[in-house]
Amino acid sequence: MKSILITGCNRGLGLGLVKHLIQLPKPPENIFATCRDVSKATKLKELAERSRNIHIIEIDLVNTCNYTKIVNTVSEKVGSEGLNVLFNNAGISQKFSRIGMVKEENLINNFFINTVAPIMLAKALLPLLKIASKNNEIEKNMSINRAAIINMTSILGSITQNDQGGFYSYRCSKAALNAATKSMSIDLKNDGILVICLHPGWVRTDMGGNNAPMDIDTSISNILNVMKMLSDKHTGSFLQYDGTTLPW
């Protein structure tokens, strides 16, 4: 892939993706990395200073009316080649809670960041994704080298595997994102745009906590391997970091 846009790159999995991508033998020509506050994204800035193909976009994804800033920045760099991959990584979580502790504010915030923002950003960047797909339709098959939307989700969004209850805000927002991913895959199939939702595993990040069994590098290495093998048969799928298909 020549270009990729990743949201939520100030830390955690987003930052890990940027780190691993620039270390590839043939890294993307353009890596667009969003963050809410550049002044706090010290490690991301250090990477960008060493790699000219990293472009930091400062934006709060809650402000969907400002998505034109993202579109314009990407357009200026990719020109007529379009955008190959949108990786909706940014998200928020909450601590485990039972029904008696659910707060309306948490439900709304989780749903907006984890579901509404990825959908609206995909809509905003769709023209650029379509251009990339059209330019690379000689490949015929879907792939990240053509055009793809990858939505970072969670196994907690699986209704089938919910055997613990709780996590209302996070579970509901990720289940909704999974549903949106499925719809996108159907709506964009004729455009040759691959769409999947991806569970990164339980990873030691600020969101995953210190008890998580997997480190960021292991998760990202697996994710990049999965991304390379994605094809038509995977569009509309709910996949784990190692390529395993998960139940809805």
TrEMBL record:
Keyword Disulfide bond: no
Species of provenance: Polistes dominula
Classification via PANTHER family: NADB-LER2 (PTHR43544:SF7), SHORT-CHAIN DEHYDROGENASE/REDUCTASE (PTHR43544)
Keywords assigned by UniProt, alphabetized: NADP, Oxidoreductase
Entries under InterPro entries matching the protein: Fungal_SecMetab_SDRs, NAD(P)-bd_dom_sf, SDR_fam
Family the UniProt entry places it in: Belongs to the short-chain dehydrogenases/reductases (SDR) family.
Protein name from the UniProt record: C-factor
Keyword Protease: no
Pfam families: adh_short (PF00106)
